[in-house]
Structures are given as structure tokens and as C-alpha cells.
Amino acid sequence: MEVWASNNKDRLRKVLLGSVPTSRTLAGHLKKPIPKVIEKVLDETQEDLAEIKNQYEKLGVEVMSFPVETMENSINVRNGFIVVDDHMWVSERLDCLEEFYKQIDDKTFLTHDEGYRAYCPDIYIHDDYAILDRLPPKTFQHWRQKLSPKRKIITAFNEGHSDGIYCNVGDKIWLTNGHVLPFEKHWPDMPVMELSTTNKGLVNDWAPVEEHFKEKELQKTGGRYLIAKTHLSESDTKFIDQYLDKWLGYCEETLFDINLSIIDDRNVMAISKNSMVYDKLESLDIMVHKVPFRHRFFWDGGLHCITNDLVRTNSAKG
Q1: Model pLDDT for residues 86-106, shown as the tens digit of each residue
Q2: Does domain 12-317 have CATH number 3.75.10.10?
């Protein structure tokens, strides 16, 4: 299979969607019963992934997905590889994706020195520039060498994955969590919508009851995760921390309003519930297609995290 992705605004044609084990698979792997709350998370996540797949297909996007049977593999398939033009670079080789790798014609499995699994969301590829954000020195040198002959290199040093910090939507607007890039220098004519609360950005407030629930549950887990509409018991958190640690991130600092899947310059898919963002995008002739992902605060993954672009329209071919 050929791949092609030179930006995030040409029409998306094929995407990889992450997966999670079923509750039965997880119980069989652990050889013990699992808490009801984990059964709920897995079952509802399976339902939501089916809805996301259905929405992609309605928009004419082919969806690839592969079953996950172990706890070691995360739903966040964005972490493990990146497509640059007609080549796939794999920084973390996963057992659950072996059949997927076999289908890709042009690919490179990177060595440890050339990369580590976390960096792929920290590289933003555009036709004529690339943003390399907070990469370790060897990884930075590798990517600067690979990308600079064709693209201008913009270097940034932000904390956290860049796809939760900024998003260029179809070259029409930047959504951002703070002043994290030299927007005025590189994109002087493109509007910027600030979303972070610390910078008095535009965000929808949680309802008082929801805010109280969020604060209380995040205190239990040190800000790492919460499960929607569920008060976790001590035994629940103990089980999650002991057996499911590799599934978790640090959701307290994640801004899901930025973590979009860009279909093209006139369509995006979103899992957040921020009407201010929706209204702004729609004012720019960008249609927002809303899909459910109820347990994003458990998986610490937005729609961009749990997908990876494989094929976009190759505008270079005309």
C-alpha cells in the first residue's frame, strides 16, 4: 500500500484508527476478573470507536484498524509512526500492528538513537515547513537532516505533545493553548484562537456539578485520569495503577478542543464540547462533525491521538 501525507489540509482518504481490548480479552489476559468500571470503559470505548469509524466513512475516508489483545499497546496510534510524503517512519514497532506494517510499501523502522515513541506527535508536517517541537538532540538532528532539503525547519520547545498545544486548521486558523509558536512571524495573516484558561482564552466553563466531580476525581488519581460519570473506589484506582498504567497519560493538562482530526480545509471531526470553537470554525466555512469519545479523560487521547493519517490527496500530482 502506498502512503502520502504532505500536510493536514488536503483531503484525507485513508486513516488508521486505534483500538482497545474487549473486557473479555483483558480478563483472559490477566487471568482474573476486572472491575465493573473497567468493563464499562472498554465496552463504551468500543462503541465510540465504531461511531468514529462510521463518521469517517460517511465523509469518504477509508478506516484501517487492528485488534489489540494486550495491555502493553495503547490506543494512541499517533505515537508510533509518522507519514512524510510517500514514506512511513516507524519509531515504535508494535506487535498489534505487524499486519499493518506488512501492507506499507515504503517504510523505515527507526533505531533507538534516531527516535523514541513519544516524538511523532511533536513533528508537524506542512508542504513547505516542519515544526520540530521539544525533540531530543539526536532525534532533532535526524529529522532536520531528513526534512530541511524540502521544508523550512521551525524549532519549538513546548512541554507536552504538540497536538494538544496547537492545531493549524486548513491554513485558516491556529487553535492554541498559550503563545507557543511565533505565529506573527511565520503566519502573520492567519488568525489565532487562544483557548487556554491561564491566558484568558476562550473555553466553555464546566457546569458547577461537573467541575466539582472533575476536581474530586482528579485528586484521587493525581491528575492522571478520570472516568466519566463514575466515582472511583480505592480498589478501582489500585487496579488501574497496578495493571493499566501503560494506557494512561496526564489528562489534567490536556486540551481536547485542539486535538482534532482534519478531513480537509472545510471539514474537521471533533470529540470536545466547546461551542465557541465550533462557532469560530463554522464562521470560517469549516464544518465540525461531532463524534463521541466518552473516556478521553481515561485514555488521555483526543481524536488526533487515536488516529494517524495514511493517505491524503496528492495535490502535487494535480
Answers
A1: 999 998 888 899 999 999 999
A2: yes
